[in-house]
Amino acid sequence: MPLGGSITYGVGSSDGNGYRRLLYEALTSSGFDVTMLGSRRTGTMNNNSHEGWRGFKINEIQEKGVKSAKAHLPSILTINGGSNDCIQGFDLGNSGKRIDGMLQRLWEASPGSTIILSTLLKNKDTQVNARVMEFNNRIRKLVQQREAENRKIVLADMDTPHGPQVGDLVDGVHPNDDGYQKMADIWYSSIQMAASRGLLQET
């Protein structure tokens, strides 16, 4: 279940699929049996269900995600959320706690789910990007803490030289097709990591 804001929706991609089609193709070509889950269907791909909500902040993403997780019991949740909080400067001091609260609610809704939690993409606006960098550090620490508790979680770090760069953004926020390819590659590697750790199971 792809979960997040407009990047999960696929804004900026030429086909409306964002990273989702690219990730689906990478996984299925490696032998994974994949069904995309969610209440929304957008993009040109056949298997195009997701929970990507344009403009939504963390608490709003949580509400949609928990409802859908209860209904679908996904094996994997790929989560990219918090960009709108950073853009709007919304309750950033509690952003780590709010993300952690969302994780706990999702695990309550679907206890068998493995969460692949991503850091946020760089932003062209320097002020927003400073917020993004701080947010990403909280994400990394949070994943380390939950991994130490043997929770089913893996980090997908988009904020590296391998992730989308400012030059891969169509509007300073959303990736172009090349940027989404980089995102798909990182999601894929993180899901492979989850598989190698024995974290994936039928729910």
From TrEMBL:
<dbReference type="InterPro" id="IPR051532">
    <property type="entry name" value="Ester_Hydrolysis_Enzymes"/>
</dbReference>
<dbReference type="InterPro" id="IPR001087">
    <property type="entry name" value="GDSL"/>
</dbReference>
<protein>
    <recommendedName>
        <fullName>SGNH hydrolase-type esterase domain-containing protein</fullName>
    </recommendedName>
</protein>
<dbReference type="Pfam" id="PF00657">
    <property type="entry name" value="Lipase_GDSL"/>
</dbReference>
<dbReference type="InterPro" id="IPR036514">
    <property type="entry name" value="SGNH_hydro_sf"/>
</dbReference>
<dbReference type="GO" id="GO:0004622">
    <property type="term" value="F:phosphatidylcholine lysophospholipase activity"/>
</dbReference>
